[in-house]
Design goal:
Length: 426
């Protein structure tokens, strides 16, 4: 959501920001609705003032023994006009709120213009992709050959875009999550949270998932939403709260299942674990002072990168163009891990600085030291990492010619010292 006063003061700046995302100018229709609302508010105020004055005049006329019938008819008419004006003002205000709620955040200066991933900019690379002396296979080929990744049974249970992991691969997913949580809590000071997986409309609205992206979510029959990422729950921990300035920054992490309908993803990644309706992820969320959000964005991104470095998985860091960044983001980095089976880099983490965009929707504020007023916090979120995709990357990068998979040294303590996963080895 946006401060309408800011749009009044700099409409061209907002239009320029939306244009970077490939959107049409929106300031004019917003300000036209704002003018109508303000005019309706003025009419309402004028009618209220006249009704109050006329009511006093009725009392004064009666006190003087005069006929007040005409004034009483005017008061009755004013009451009718007031109800109509109140309805009009509410209708215009609702239309304005609906329009503002559907508009994405304004990109930060320095974010490149563009509409899709072809306009993203590579920032750096880490690690060297391994040279194979055999044709590398994709993760689902490896997992099925191990006998530990079953899409057919999952389809019988739930349909497409689900998987059943068993034995060592089920253990590996759990080990990866514990490994990531230990890094983020012990090395980087995040507080581990076990949040609800079901949230109400207000929480989904606060992070920007509603109303625009309702089709991307799963909804229960009693009006809960299954979280598409723990960001939705973690960010809303400060919704409707006023945080003391000295309590900032707040840093949260959580390992949760995530649920996405993948609306619009027909034909994309139909095989394997890359794009599923249910997956697990370790999420990072920061609630910070506005002056610190840019630095926190770099810090959060480096925390996610550290997981890949310790697992020795090659990756590259991409700055997303405005059109490819998420709805609530003002600046986003994607971390893309190398997948030799696909011979390309694929996203494994997305780290976004949302500025005060979500905070305004959530009414999340802080109280500056020594001041009576409050200001909006800034919120950031990132994957630290997508656990299933990390498992995919491990299988493909550490696969061996005999069908086995070597486990990276950093992970072996989480697998009871196990060094390899072999076909038939469970």
């Amino acid at each position: 959501m946006f401060d309408i006063r800011a749009i009044r003061e700099a409409p061209d700046a907002f239009d320029a920001g939306w244009a970077k995302r490939g959107l049409e100018p929106m300031a004019a229709p917003i300000l036209a609705l704002d003018d109508r609302r303000r005019a309706a508010q003025t009419r309402l105020q004028t009618l209220q003032q006249r009704r109050n004055a006329a009511s006093r005049e009725v009392g004064q006329a009666k006190a003087r023994g005069e006929d007040a019938a005409e004034l009483m008819r005017e008061v009755a008419g004013l009451k009718t006009d007031l109800r109509a004006s109140e309805d009009e003002e509410r209708e215009i205000a609702a239309a304005l709120d609906t329009l503002l709620a559907a508009l994405p955040n304004i990109p930060e200066d320095g974010v490149p213009a563009g509409v899709d991933e072809t306009d993203n900019v590579e920032i750096r690379r880490w690690g060297t992709p391994r040279d194979f002396d055999f044709p590398p296979r994709q993760h689902f080929e490896i997992g099925e050959a191990l006998g530990l990744m079953d899409f057919e049974r999952a389809a019988r249970l739930s349909g497409a875009r689900f998987v059943v992991l068993s034995g060592a691969l089920a253990r590996l997913e759990r080990a990866l999550a514990a490994f990531m949580l230990d890094i983020h809590t012990r090395a980087f000071g995040y507080t581990e949270i076990d949040p609800p997986l079901l949230v109400r409309d207000r929480a989904a609205f606060g992070t920007g998932n509603l109303p625009k992206f309702a089709d991307d979510l799963f909804r229960t029959t009693d009006d809960y939403w299954l979280i598409p990422t723990a960001e939705m729950a973690l960010t809303n921990l400060v919704a409707d709260e006023i945080v003391d300035e000295d309590a900032l920054p707040l840093r949260f992490t959580a390992y949760t299942p995530c649920f996405r309908s993948e609306a619009g993803a027909a034909g994309k990644d139909t095989r394997g674990m890359i794009r599923q309706h249910q997956f697990t992820k370790v999420e990072l969320v920061s609630i910070v002072h506005p002056d610190q959000s840019a630095d926190e964005h770099e810090r959060m991104t480096s925390c996610a990168e550290e997981v890949l470095k310790r697992l020795e998985l090659p990756y590259r860091l991409m700055l997303l163009c405005a059109g490819d960044a998420s709805f609530a983001s003002r600046k986003t980095y994607d971390i893309e891990v190398w997948l030799p089976g696909q011979a390309c880099y694929r996203e494994i983490s997305s780290c976004s600085n949302c500025g005060d965009f979500q905070a305004r929707r959530m009414k999340a504020r802080y109280r500056p030291a020594g001041e009576r007023g409050t200001r909006f916090v800034h919120s950031l979120n990132g994957s630290g990492l997508a656990v299933g995709r990390t498992l995919v990357a491990l299988l493909e990068n550490y696969q061996q010619a005999d069908g086995s998979v070597v486990l990276p040294e950093a992970l072996r303590a989480y697998m009871e010292g196990r060094e390899t996963i072999k076909p038939g080895g469970g």
